[in-house]
C-alpha cells in the first residue's frame, strides 16, 4: 500500500481510538486526503465552550511536506485570519517535522488559541486590537465564539448586549467596537457599516481612542 | 543575513585562478562548416575582432563544475584554517552565506556556538524547548541521550552514516512501518527508516528547492551533510545533481561577481566583476552571454532577461515599470490593424517593414506615424523625433496631462513597434528560409550563397532591439544638443533598418538572387555599422557623463 495512505489511515484510526483528547477527524468526501478536524476551545480562554472546525488537506508528499490547514469556524485571534481562516503557525511552515501528525497538529492549533503570538500576526487588525486592549479583545473573541462556534452567550460584563437571542447579530460587537463610538459618528450622517469599517481599521479602541482625533476619523470616513 | 559585502580584494580572486576554464564542452576543433561560416562572416565584418568595444563588457562564462571549483577553494581555505573536514567547512560556509571573513570572525569568537547554529552539532546541555509554539506537544521521539561535546573542533563525518541493523523490531515514527530494518540518523541519533529519509530529502530538494535539510525530528536543528544526502538518495543521481545545482546557485547568489544564467534548465554562471558594484551600472550596460548558448543573453546588472543596450539598467527598468503602469492607456496602439488615412480601409501589418502601401488606394505611408512615406524616404526623416513644438501647441489647446500622455505614446508607440516588427521579421524569415532551401536544390546556388538572408534578418532583429531601447532612453533624455545628436544616430539607424527590412520583403526568385544578394549584403554591412555607432556613441556618452535626464534616474542625482 502507498506509504502516505497507510500512514493517514493509521492516524485516523488512532484518533478514533483515543477518547481522551476530544479531537475528532472525519472525511469530507471519499478522499482520505481531505478531512475535517474539530476540537473544543481551550478552557480558561475566550474560546472556551466553542467547537472549532478545521479544513485539512493532506499534500501528496505528506508527511514530508506540512499539512494544509485552515479554520472553517470563524475565529477572532491575532494569528488566524478573521476573513479566511488562514493560520499563521510555524509548524505549518518552516518548523514542520514529518513526525508531527494530524492529531498533534490539531493539538497545536488548540494551544495556539491559548497563547496568541501578536508579534507574528496573520490578521493585523485583530493583532492591533489584542495589543491595545486585552479585555476588549477578549470580549470580542468571546462574542465570536458565541455566535460562530456555538459557545455560551457572552456575559454582559459592564455593557448591555441588548440583542435578544436569535436576533440580528450585533455587528458592532463583531467588530470589537463600542456602541457609543459608532453612534457618535453615525450621528454625523455617515452610514453605520462605513463607520464600523473605518473605526475597526483605525483600531478605535481602549487607550487608542484618545490618540485618534475626531477629525481624523471623519477624514477617513470621507475617503472611504 | 544577506547584507554582507564582499571586499574589493575578494573581487580579484577569480582571476588569480591558474586553472584554465575551458568553455568548449567537447574541445573539438572547429568543423569545416564553422570555417566556411568564418570566411563568410568576413564579408560582413565592419571592425576587426579582438578589441573590446566600449559597449561590451568583459565577462567569463563558468560551467557548474567551474563554480564548484571556486566553492572548493573556499572550503579548502576554511578547513585549513579551522582544522575541520570539508563537509563541516561547507556547512559553515553555507550557513554564513559564503562570507568567509564573517565566518572566520564568528568562529574565532565562539566555535561551538556557530557550529550549533550551522546545524553541525547539538547543544551539549539539553537546550530550552525549541522555539516553536507547539513544542509541548512533541511526541517524545527525541531521545536526550548521547549529546556530544562540541568543545573541540566539531566534525560531522564521525556518525554520518549510521546504518544500524537493530535486533529489536524498529517502528519508523514516520511511516509506522515495522518491516524496515535499514535506518539512518544524523549525529543526534534520531533514527528513521531509509525510505523515509529518501522521500524527505527528495521532497526538500525537488519541491522546495532546499539545500539546507534539517533532521526530521521535531525541533532538531541538525543539518544533513552532503555525504548523508548522497547516501540517502542512493541511486537517484538526478536528485543528487539537482542538490549540487542548488548549492551552486546558493553560492552564486551570494557573490556579487557572479550571476546565474536565468534561462530555464541552464546551469551556467557568468562572472563579471566589472559590473559588480551598483555605481558601475550608472555608466555601463553589462550584457553578458552564458557559455551554454549564444542565445542565453541577459543583463548582469538587473533582472531584464535580454540585451537592453544602449540604455542603462536603472532607466530600462524605469521605462518597463512605466509601460506596465500605463499599459491600459497604451493598449490600443498594440493592435495590429490600422486604417488607411486616405481611403479608410483596414490594413493589417504582416511584415516587419514600416513602409505601408494600402492595397486599395495605393497610398504609401509610415505605419508608425501614419504620415506619408514620401516624407520618410527623402532627406528629412523625422519619424523618430517627438515634435516638441507640436506638443507645445497641443498643450495650449489641451490639458497638460493629455500632452504628457501624447509624449509618452510617441515613444511607446515606436518602442512597441520595433518589438513587434522584430518578431514579424523572424516569422517572415521562417517562410523565406524554406524557399531558400528549395532554391538551393533547384538552382546552382550553394548553401553559403543562400545564407545572406539569415544574416540580414538576424541583424535586423538585433538592430530593432537596439532601436526599441533607444526610445526608452530618449523618453528620459533631457532635450538639448546631446539629445538631438542621440536622435540623429537613432534616425540613421532606423532609416537603415527600415530600408533593409523592405529589401527582405521583396519576392525572391531564383534569377534575382545574385542582385538581391549584393544589395542585401551591402545594406546589412551598413546597418551593422549604424548599430555599432549607436551603441558605441551611447556607451561613450555614459562614460563621459554626457547624458542628462529629465526625470530622476537612480544613480544620477
Ligand atoms: Zn519510515
Ligand atoms: Zn535529529
Ligand atoms: Zn545559459
Ligand atoms: Zn540591466
Ligand atoms: Zn487606402
Ligand atoms: Zn513615420
UniProtKB/TrEMBL annotation, chain A:
PROSITE patterns attached to this UniProt entry? UBC_1 (PS00183), UBC_2 (PS50127)
SUPFAM superfamilies with a match to the protein in the record: UBA-like (SSF46934), UBC-like (SSF54495)
Coiled-coil regions, chain positions: none
Ranges for the UBC core domain?
Answer: 3-150
| Lineage: superkingdom | Eukaryota
Q: In the Enzyme Commission scheme, what number(s) does this protein have? A: 2.3.2.23
The positions flagged as active site in the entry are: 88 (glycyl thioester intermediate)
Classification via SMART domains: UBCc
> What Pfam family is a match, any one?
UBA_3
Record flagged with keyword ATP-binding: yes
Keyword check for Transferase: yes
For this UniProt record, give its keywords in alphabetical order, as a comma-separated list.
ATP-binding, Nucleotide-binding, Transferase, Ubl conjugation pathway
Q: What class of enzyme is it?
A: transferase
Molecular function terms in GO for this entry?
ATP binding; ubiquitin conjugating enzyme activity
Record InterPro entries: UBA-like_sf, UBA_C_fun, UBC, UBQ-conjugating_AS, UBQ-conjugating_enzyme/RWD
Family the entry assigns:
Belongs to the ubiquitin-conjugating enzyme family.
User: What's the protein here called?
Assistant: Ubiquitin-conjugating enzyme E2 1
From TrEMBL, chain B:
Question: RING-type domain: which residues?
Answer: 168-387, 172-215
Looking up Pfam families in the UniProt record yields: Ariadne, IBR, IBR_1, UBA_ARI1, zf-C3HC4
Task: Kindly give the Gene3D superfamilies that the UniProt entry links to this protein.
Answer: 1.20.120.1750, Zinc/RING finger domain, C3HC4 (zinc finger)
Q: Map out region (Disordered) in residue numbers.
A: 1-43, 125-149
Gene Ontology MF term list: ubiquitin protein ligase activity; zinc ion binding
Q: Which organism is it from?
A: Jaapia argillacea MUCL 33604
Which InterPro entries has this protein been placed in? Ariadne (IPR045840), ARIH1-like_UBL (IPR048962), E3_UB_ligase_RBR (IPR031127), IBR_dom (IPR002867), TRIAD_supradom (IPR044066), Znf_C3HC4_RING-type (IPR018957), Znf_RING (IPR001841), Znf_RING/FYVE/PHD (IPR013083)
Know the name of this protein? Answer: RBR-type E3 ubiquitin transferase
**Which reactions are catalysed by this chain?**
[E2 ubiquitin-conjugating enzyme]-S-ubiquitinyl-L-cysteine + [acceptor protein]-L-lysine = [E2 ubiquitin-conjugating enzyme]-L-cysteine + [acceptor protein]-N(6)-ubiquitinyl-L-lysine
Keywords, A to Z, come to: Metal-binding, Repeat, Transferase, Ubl conjugation pathway, Zinc, Zinc-finger
Stretches with biased composition (Acidic residues): 1-41
Record EC number: 2.3.2.31
Among the record's GO biological process terms, what is one? protein ubiquitination
Question: Could you list the residue ranges forming a coiled coil in this record?
Answer: none
Q: Which CDD domains match?
A: BRcat_RBR_ANKIB1, Rcat_RBR_HHARI-like, RING-HC_RBR_HEL2-like
Amino acid at each position: 500500500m502507498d506509504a502516505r495512505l497507510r500512514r493517514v489511515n493509521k492516524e485516523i484510526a488512532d484518533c478514533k481510538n483515543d477518547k481522551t483528547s476530544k479531537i475528532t477527524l472525519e472525511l469530507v468526501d471519499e478522499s482520505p486526503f481531505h478531512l475535517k478536524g474539530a476540537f473544543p476551545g481551550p478552557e480558561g480562554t475566550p474560546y472556551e465552550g466553542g467547537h472549532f472546525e478545521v479544513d485539512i488537506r493532506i499534500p501528496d508528499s505528506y508527511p514530508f511536506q506540512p499539512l494544509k490547514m485552515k479554520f472553517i469556524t470563524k475565529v477572532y485571534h491575532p494569528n488566524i485570519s478573521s476573513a479566511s481562516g488562514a493560520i499563521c503557525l510555524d509548524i505549518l511552515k518552516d518548523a514542520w517535522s514529518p513526525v508531527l501528525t494530524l492529531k498533534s497538529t490539531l493539538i497545536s492549533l488548540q494551544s495556539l488559541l491559548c497563547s496568541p503570538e501578536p508579534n507574528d500576526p496573520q490578521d493585523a487588525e485583530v493583532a492591533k486590537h489584542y495589543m491595545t486592549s486585552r479585555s476588549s479583545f477578549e470580549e470580542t473573541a468571546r462574542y465570536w465564539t458565541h455566535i460562530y462556534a456555538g459557545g455560551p452567550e457572552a456575559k454582559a460584563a459592564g455593557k448591555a448586549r441588548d440583542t435578544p437571542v436569535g436576533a440580528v447579530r450585533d455587528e458592532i460587537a463583531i467588530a470589537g467596537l463600542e456602541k457609543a463610538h459608532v453612534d457618535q459618528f453615525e450621528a454625523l450622517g455617515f452610514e453605520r457599516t462605513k463607520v464600523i469599517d473605518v473605526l475597526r481599521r483605525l483600531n478605535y479602541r481602549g487607550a487608542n481612542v484618545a490618540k485618534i482625533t475626531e477629525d481624523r476619523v471623519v477624514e477617513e470616513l470621507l475617503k472611504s | 543575513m544577506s547584507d554582507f559585502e564582499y571586499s574589493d580584494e575578494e573581487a580579484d580572486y577569480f582571476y588569480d585562478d591558474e586553472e584554465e576554464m575551458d568553455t568548449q564542452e567537447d574541445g573539438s576543433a572547429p568543423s569545416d562548416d564553422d570555417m566556411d561560416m568564418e570566411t563568410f562572416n568576413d564579408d560582413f565584418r565592419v571592425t576587426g575582432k579582438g578589441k573590446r568595444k566600449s559597449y561590451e563588457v568583459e565577462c567569463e562564462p563558468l560551467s557548474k563544475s567551474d563554480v564548484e571549483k571556486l566553492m572548493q577553494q573556499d572550503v579548502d581555505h576554511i578547513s585549513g584554517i579551522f582544522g575541520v573536514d570539508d563537509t563541516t567547512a561547507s556547512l559553515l560556509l553555507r550557513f554564513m552565506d559564503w562570507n568567509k571573513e564573517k565566518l572566520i570572525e564568528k568562529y574565532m569568537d565562539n566555535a561551538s556556538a556557530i557550529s550549533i547554529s550551522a546545524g553541525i552539532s547539538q547543544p551539549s546541555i539539553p537546550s530550552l524547548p525549541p522555539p516553536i509554539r507547539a513544542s509541548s506537544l512533541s511526541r517524545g521521539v527525541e531521545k536526550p541521550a548521547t549529546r556530544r561535546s562540541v568543545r573541540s573542533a566539531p566534525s560531522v563525518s564521525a556518525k554520518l552514516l549510521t546504518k544500524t541493523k537493530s535486533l529489536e523490531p524498529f517502528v519508523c515514527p514516520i511511516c509506522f512501518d515495522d518491516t524496515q530494518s535499514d535506518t539512518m540518523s544524523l549525529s543526534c541519533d534520531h533514527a528513521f527508516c531509509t525510505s523515509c529519509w529518501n522521500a524527505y530529502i527528495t521532497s526538500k530538494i525537488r519541491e522546495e528547492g532546499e539545500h539546507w535539510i534539517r533532521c526530521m525530528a521535531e525541533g532538531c536543528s541538525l543539518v544533513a551533510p552532503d555525504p548523508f544526502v548522497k547516501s540517502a538518495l542512493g541511486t537517484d543521481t538526478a536528485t543528487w545533481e539537482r542538490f549540487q545545482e542548488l548549492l551552486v546557485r546558493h553560492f552564486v547568489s551570494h557573490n556579487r561577481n557572479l550571476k546565474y544564467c536565468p534561462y530555464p534548465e541552464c546551469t551556467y554562471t557568468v562572472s563579471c566583476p566589472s559590473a559588480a558594484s551598483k555605481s558601475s551600472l550608472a555608466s555601463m550596460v553589462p550584457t553578458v552571454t552564458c557559455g551554454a548558448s549564444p542565445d542565453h543573453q541577459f543583463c548582469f546588472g538587473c533582472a531584464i532577461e535580454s540585451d537592453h543596450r544602449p540604455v542603462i539598467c536603472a532607466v530600462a527598468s524605469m521605462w518597463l515599470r512605466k509601460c506596465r503602469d500605463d499599459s491600459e492607456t497604451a493598449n490600443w496602439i498594440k493592435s495590429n490593424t490600422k486604417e488607411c488615412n486616405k481611403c479608410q480601409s483596414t490594413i493589417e501589418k504582416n511584415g516587419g517593414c514600416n513602409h505601408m502601401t494600402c492595397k486599395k488606394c495605393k497610398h504609401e505611408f509610415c505605419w508608425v506615424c501614419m504620415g506619408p512615406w514620401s516624407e520618410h524616404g527623402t532627406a528629412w526623416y523625422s519619424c523618430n523625433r517627438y515634435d516638441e513644438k507640436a506638443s507645445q501647441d497641443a498643450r495650449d489647446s489641451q490639458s497638460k496631462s493629455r500632452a504628457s500622455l501624447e509624449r509618452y505614446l510617441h515613444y511607446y508607440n515606436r518602442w512597441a513597434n520595433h518589438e513587434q516588427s522584430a518578431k514579424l521579421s523572424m516569422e517572415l524569415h521562417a517562410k523565406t528560409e524554406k524557399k531558400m532551401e528549395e532554391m538551393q536544390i533547384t538552382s546552382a546556388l550553394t548553401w553559403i550563397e543562400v545564407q545572406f538572408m539569415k544574416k540580414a534578418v538576424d541583424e535586423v532583429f538585433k538592430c530593432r532591439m537596439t532601436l526599441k531601447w533607444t526610445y526608452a532612453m530618449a523618453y528620459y533624455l533631457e532635450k538639448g544638443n546631446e539629445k538631438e545628436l542621440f536622435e540623429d544616430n537613432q534616425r540613421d539607424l532606423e532609416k537603415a533598418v527600415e530600408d533593409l527590412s523592405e529589401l527582405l520583403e521583396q519576392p525572391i526568385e531564383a534569377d534575382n538572387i545574385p542582385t538581391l544578394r549584393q544589395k542585401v549584403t551591402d545594406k546589412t554591412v551598413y546597418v551593422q555599422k549604424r548599430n555599432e555607432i549607436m551603441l558605441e556613441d551611447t556607451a561613450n556618452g555614459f562614460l563621459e557623463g554626457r547624458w542628462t535626464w529629465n526625470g530622476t534616474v537612480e544613480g544620477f542625482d
